[in-house]
């Protein structure tokens, strides 16, 4: 089974940059997008064979997530059940017979000005997925807005303790992994360098591959042996992020 996740940084803009061509090329069973920055119905997507699930922010043109699934879920949940965190359309959960699939767009701490809120969010989200994980395995994907280790960004020394690479954010990521999750890309490629998913639009960062790996697929530890492939589709444009994929063996 193949999964794809992509922060499209505005789906309407990405649609003008060959989103549909990339969507078809990637041929996912479940395709999740973050930062849709639109309300459901503002564009009509013709996705033959896919059910569509949208969670939009109350604020227009901000945040938002969506999932397009070939497989019909048994349940659909929007948000994490905490009113403070559920107004920005950041989480969708699809429940299937053998697993939960969660897409998330983690809040940016914005030069650490929002770090207190970010850390509160981290605790609430971790509690939410921990409860799911107690029921059945969980697949988490999305823009987690943190580079976990120094290998995950081009210039770790000069970016130490900036937003997305602060000690506090990285530690929260450690805690999430430690409650029973695996970073699928690092599971397969623990020492692979220059593997990034986001590049600043400025200073030709993508052309120079001066980027950060902040988009992930995490899975419950008990799914780790089923990980067949995990890729970073850096050749696909249309956003300042690129898609990431996960393939799990069905056996």
Strand content: 25-35%
Number of strands: 14
- Report how far the terminal alpha carbons are from each other: 10 Å
Uncertain stretches of 5 or more adjacent residues: none
Shape: globular
Class inferred from helices and paired strands? alpha+beta
Main β-sheet: number of strands, strand sense, barrel status? 6 strands, mixed
User: What strand line-up does the widest sheet have?
Assistant: 3-4-2-1-14-13
| Rg, alpha carbons | 17 Å
Order of helices and strands: EHHEEEEEEHEHHEHEEEEE
Kindly state the percentage of residues in helix.
10-25%
Q: Give the overall pLDDT as a whole number.
A: 97
Q: Given the structure, what is the number of helices?
A: 6
Describe the structure concisely for a colleague:
The chain is an alpha+beta fold and 251 residues long.
Account of the 3D structure:
With 251 residues, the chain is α+β, with helices and mostly antiparallel strands. It contains six helices and 14 strands. The protein has helices at 11-15, 19-26, 115-133, 156-159, 167-178, 184-188; strands at residues 2-7, 30-34, 51-55, 65-69, 75-78, 91-95, 100-105, 138-143, 181-183, 198-199, 211-212, 215-220, 227-232, 244-248. Helix 3 links the parallel strand 7 (100-105) and strand 8. Helix 3 runs parallel beside helix 5. The termini are close together.
Characteristics:
single chain, 251 residues, alpha+beta, 6-stranded mixed sheet, globular
């Amino acid at each position: 089974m193949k999964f794809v996740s992509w922060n499209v940084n505005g789906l309407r803009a990405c649609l003008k940059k060959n989103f549909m061509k990339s969507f078809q090329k990637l041929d996912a069973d479940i395709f999740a997008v973050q930062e849709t920055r639109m309300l459901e119905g503002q564009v009509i997507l013709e996705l033959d064979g896919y059910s569509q699930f949208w969670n939009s922010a109350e604020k227009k043109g901000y945040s938002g997530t969506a999932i397009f699934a070939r497989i019909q879920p048994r349940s659909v949940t929007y948000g994490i059940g905490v009113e403070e965190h559920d107004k920005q359309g950041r989480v969708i959960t699809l429940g299937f017979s053998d697993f939960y699939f969660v897409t998330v767009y983690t809040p940016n701490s914005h030069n650490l000005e929002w770090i207190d809120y970010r850390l509160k969010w981290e605790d609430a989200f971790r509690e939410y997925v921990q409860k799911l994980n107690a029921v059945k395995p969980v697949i988490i994907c999305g823009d987690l807005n943190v580079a976990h280790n120094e290998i995950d960004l081009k210039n770790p020394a000069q970016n130490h303790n900036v937003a997305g690479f602060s000690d506090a954010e990285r530690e929260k990521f450690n805690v999430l992994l430690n409650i029973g999750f695996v970073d699928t890309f690092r599971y397969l490629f623990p020492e692979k360098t220059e593997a990034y998913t986001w590049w600043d639009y400025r200073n030709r960062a993508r052309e120079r591959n001066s980027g950060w790996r902040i988009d992930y697929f995490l899975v419950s530890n008990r799914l780790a042996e089923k990980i067949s492939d995990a890729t970073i589709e850096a050749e696909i444009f249309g956003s300042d992020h690129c898609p990431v994929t996960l393939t799990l063996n069905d056996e």
